[in-house]
From TrEMBL:
GO terms for biological process: RNA modification. It comes from Kingdonia uniflora. PPR repeats lie at residues 97-127, 128-162. Keywords: Repeat. PANTHER family: PENTATRICOPEPTIDE REPEAT-CONTAINING PROTEIN, PENTATRICOPEPTIDE REPEAT-CONTAINING PROTEIN ELI1, CHLOROPLASTIC-LIKE ISOFORM X2. This is Uncharacterized protein.
Amino acid sequence: MIRGYVQSHLPMPAILCYLDMLNYGLIANNYTFPPLIKAYTLLVPSMKLIGRMVHTHIVVFGFCDDPFVVSALIEHYSSVIEMGIARRLFDGVGKKDVVLWTAMIDGYGKMGDVVKGRELFDVMPDRNVISWSAMMAGYSRVNDFEEVLGLFTRMQEEGIVPNESVLGSVLTACGHLGALTQGLWVHSYAKRNNQDRENPVLATAIVDMYAKCGRIEAALLVFGGIQNKDAGAWNAIISGVAMNGDANTSLGIFAKMCGKNGAQPNETTFVSILSACIHAGLVYEGLKLFNQMGVVYKVEPQREHYACVVDLLARAGMLEEAEKFIEEKIGGFGGIDANVWGALLGACRVHQNVEVGNRVWKKLTDFGLGDYGTHVLMYNIYKEAGWEMEAKRVRLSLTKLGLKKKPGCSLIEVNGVVDEFVAGDHSHTRAGEICEILGSLF
């Protein structure tokens, strides 16, 4: 009953059921506490006292050394960002099974602490496919996609059969790195196991990978074969087509999504479709969609949708309208969004509007949000407009604050291996040969 309530997202009845059980004189066992801990997690942060009671009962009934129960506790404390308590629980268990190790690695991964997670992963006595999946997911969260592919290679060498979660992480990494060869291998593997159509989550990851690698025809083919298309699949193809420069097709797919056999659009859908309008300069279409979000599609606009509208107006040269929109609409979210104002500043340089750029710059500096990029951008705006004194002040500010440009980075895949190159860095093993060839080209 407790588990049933939790699976139905009814945490409070689950806890009351547990209290009734105790009133009947029944003693909880190691099958009672994991769903009970899940119930408490669903209630956090409103009912911390209940969580303390549950943890206290675990201690009283003597289950502090039970890996099954401790794994559930670790998962809970990870979700409420209390990794110190989670680690003490983990260290307190004498005989740790693979589930307990994996729970701890997954907890560190969710916190973005892949260093500690990897330390445990490397020393755990036995690993299963879920352990590998948890470590890869951790690296994906911090955008370290090269490590994801490195782990996948090791996993294959050790003969571990990947599950759908592992394949999803690898496809995400391939998309971000442009590693098409490895992406093709994963798709081929999924095809052999009938996972590319039957599993919409994995199929969506395949669509996203092809789109990011510039193979939009392949992305459309896989999308067409998905049997039960959810919002995620529609979002992936709408975004992918737009990313590859075909906004009108993207709008057409959006119309099909909203049709009889489509799916209900969500917040992500509108970020994708508004981005398509931005890059194609479709101001009227973008504004119309934004205005219809809440009224027609019942999706409440969020900060990122307002930011899309600002970008849409700014790129079209409607800088005063974009500035007014920020003041009236985005200001209601509280604080100041450096990315939104920064996008407007970039448009000011493109359209050579020093007056609006000057006002935007003052806002950014008043809130201490001027980074290296915005300083250089504003310097160029002033310089190109002939505002020499202001340009000089920006350059002095750049020196005074000690801001430095982050070096550029690029990736290329050759024979299934992804190589990274950083500006000014010669640590690549074949740097000498590369420079020699580059010199011959010049």
